[in-house]
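User: My collaborator sent over this chain with a note saying "see what the structure looks like." That's all I know about it. Can you take a look?
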Amino acid sequence: MASRSETLPAADPSRAIDQAGQWFWGFLKNELAPYPGRAWVVARITIAATIVMIIVMTFRIPNGFLAAIFTLFLSRENPTATLRSGFRAALAFTIATAYTLLGVTLLVADPLTHFLWIVLSLFIAFYLIGIISDYGTAVGFGFLLAGAIPLWDQTLLNVNDRVENTLWLGFTTPLGVTVAVVVEYVFRRVHPTTDLTEGIEHRLLAVEDVLRGLAAQGPLGGKLEKEISLYTGAGMSRLRRLLNRSGYSSHFISQMNAAVSLLGRLVDLAASLHHFRAGQSTPLSAEDRERCQRLADEISILREDLGLRKPPRPINLPHGGQPSNLPFLPAMETTASLIPRVFVGAESINEFIPAPMDDEVKQPFFAPDAFSNPDHLKFAIRGMLAATASYVVYTAVDWRGLSTSIPTCIITALSTIGSSRQKQFLRLGGAIIGGIIVGMGAQIFVLPYLDSIAGFTLLFAGVTALSAWIATASPRLSYLGVQLALAFYLINLQEFAIQTSLSIARDRIFGVFLGLLCMWLIFDRLWVKDALEEMQTVFARNLDMFAELAVQMLKEDRNESVKRVRRLRDQINAGFQAVTAQSDAVLFELGPSRPRKLQVREDFKRWQPSLRTLLLVQLTAAQYRLQMPLSELPEAIAKAHVAFEQDTARVMQGMADEVRGKTSEAVPDIQASAANLGQEIRKSYEELGLPVAPQTSDMISLTENVASILAPLYKDIHATFATPQEATGGLQQYRPGEA
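Assistant: Without extra context I'll predict from the sequence alone. Here is the result:
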């Protein structure tokens, strides 16, 4: 029998390279293509950073690069959120400045105590990154320490100069924050429409145009084809970031996050439908054309309602979800019909009638397990060892220019291998482009011919605009833009003259290499976590919390139940974000298990929108139940209510067990349970000779919605993990070295 290698042709290396090149070019085109609102974001970032540069150069402010780079970090959905985020960053820098001055005052005189202070400071910086809920605030603390450490190693400067430069280091961030906030307020006056509104409206319009084109059996225009492809490649991550940083109420953010997830799925389905029809010449049936036209009309109404900031009307499709000769159309109908359900119970999108579940739960400053979870301690030790190793190396060879290795360790330290490697690759790419290609290129070909601040301002604004354009891409590429700007600013905003020495850029790049090397050798070898394993754990924990959420309203202590529901709501939303982050990180984990990981990753991404919608429907149902306590209901209805909530919890727990790879018990028929509850309610009203009250009717609809979402979701998850070789529990067999 011939061997497998004899029967299969050898892969052509040149063809593989060509395919990789085509994929990379397509990836860049999707990431860098313009989308609604992007130019406005880039404009305000560029203007803010350029104003900061002029102030730094005019008043000769040391370490001005920090003020400029924070204008990229602080662009938010609205000026209030920008101010709030900037205040936290400025506070972190102020605390870090005070800590630095106190530490060096006590310990700088002796080399041994000075070194121990550095080690302790690095440990504190990494520990805060692990336990502080606001990642930007924690990194800001570590970033100032990373700038202060090489400053206090400069023995050629006297103590007074070092203290003065440390104070300037802490002052630069408030400068950048102030300029960014002012620019935000001015731009909101000029361009009041938010980036979030534009992003949602244009995506819905693109889907609507695709459907109308199919209904008319005409070809899509080149512009529309390019637009739908762009939205598919860009994804919805930027809209989610705008929401999470917007400063809106957590209830509204939860609703819009669910709607955005469903919208992303709708765009993907529209793109798939278009690609399918592009290769078909047979005409559509009259029924399919009518369904496309009807769905387009419903999406138009949905877009209009969202534009007017009012809850969208239910989408009524006579044949919605039924089989069709046109692939993806039934899925599009089902997905579109879920979007209005997200806003069930909302009187308007601008204002909500106060309800117990709408009350805000303040995000704790520290993570709930900050001082009890040993993983935070392990994370801090890993980061401290990697950063200390880089410090020891560049100090031993007396190459102070490599001090960029410490901030490299701080800003690329994440909880899993994949997420950490993702930032490391982008950090390295940004340093090479910003430091060597743009930085050194400008030093050789541009800066020698500039003799005024006006010329340098044009160069600075151009590089900042390029960086901001990349930074407004999806998370797969956005960090590259920030690092490009940082590398360029480190070269040109450290001194108050045009920088022509190439050694500075060289040192910055080698420092990044040193930091990444220490991270690979130390951080990625100690107590490592697999990104997909983490995603599996978080996803299953979310399902556990869903199960707990279902039975909260059955408890007698209503006040305690409401508090617990609020906490569960925020924890589940945080879990959604964690699953999405780990999903991106899986792409950076290599090894023989990679194909399986990518397959499971796609499954998790498919289930997320349904879970987001389910959370909103459950929260709305919980608000209704608070107004109708079980003790005030007829016994038969109360019993059916309890049975439905318990069945919901059992189905949720069954899905959690499936995801963990455990054997789960048979789950109840949740749709039959919902039907039984509705039957008991109607029967009770019939016996009283009264029509079903509107509020009670809404309650019936909500339970039916829960069942209609939950039943197919469980079926999908159960089918995915039904056999041992498909179970996610097999992921536990992976070794970190295989990731």
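A starting point for your reply to your collaborator: The first helix runs from residue 4 to 7.
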